[in-house]
Amino acid sequence: MQATSPASNLPLVRRLEAVGFRAWPAATVIYDGSWQVRLAGGHPSKRLNCVVPLDPSDCRDMDLRLEKARKRFQSYGRPLLLRQTPLASPQLIEHLAAEGWERFETVKVMTTELGRLALPDTIDHLPSHDIGRFVDASLSVTGEDAGLKPALAEVLSAIKPASGLFVIEEPPHGPVAVALCVQDNDLAGVMELAVAAAFRQRGLGVEILTSALRWARISGARAAWLQVLDSNAPALALYRKFGFREAYEYHYWREAQR
């Protein structure tokens, strides 16, 4: 899977968006034309709570459809967010800018060919299927609010493709690194990769990513993908060591404060 210009490879964008939806499923998904409206009652993840336009030609009735989406988001207590991928209509993005919306975050979607990677013959860390243990480890490693445990467990339980939950523990400290790998046919998505702040720069990111990609390749995946903030220089450096290259990027938009 070559990372090429998104303008010339919209089928790749569509495929990666589709596997991304399955790898991080929202509790509620409805369609308004080609706009996917994603909402989650418990988890605040932007990927789970946004409008995602999926057809560059679909820009009809923009104000009406945005207002319908706004009311739906308000019913969930969420601010209206729109995620702009190369599949979004240019006219829609121009409309958002003219209406005072703000583009506030950029995420790179990256891919690598697993067959080209020099990975070890054995897996140092075998995946678990214990969602409760992984959720506890993830919240501990990232320092996120423990109150998110039920919501994160709900998201992980809803993932339908095969998934491996990776945790590295160091006694007596407990969990120090986590990663989720979701295998969807020949594509494997690396999600939720994190290393505890006090244990960074020790090779744990390389260690857990190696195990996840090795498991994915053994399980039949031919390529891997992931998403990373464009401002996260350490993560970008790690992923590029494994041959990950940008396939496309997306941006979040939010309404101006009223």
Automatic annotation (TrEMBL):
Domain N-acetyltransferase residues, every copy: 121-258
GO molecular function annotations of the record: acyltransferase activity, transferring groups other than amino-acyl groups
PROSITE patterns: GNAT
Keyword annotations from UniProtKB, A to Z: Acyltransferase, Transferase
Gene3D superfamilies in UniProt: 3.40.630.30
Domain of life: Bacteria
UniProt-recorded name of the protein: GCN5 family acetyltransferase
Native source organism of the sequence: Pseudorhizobium pelagicum
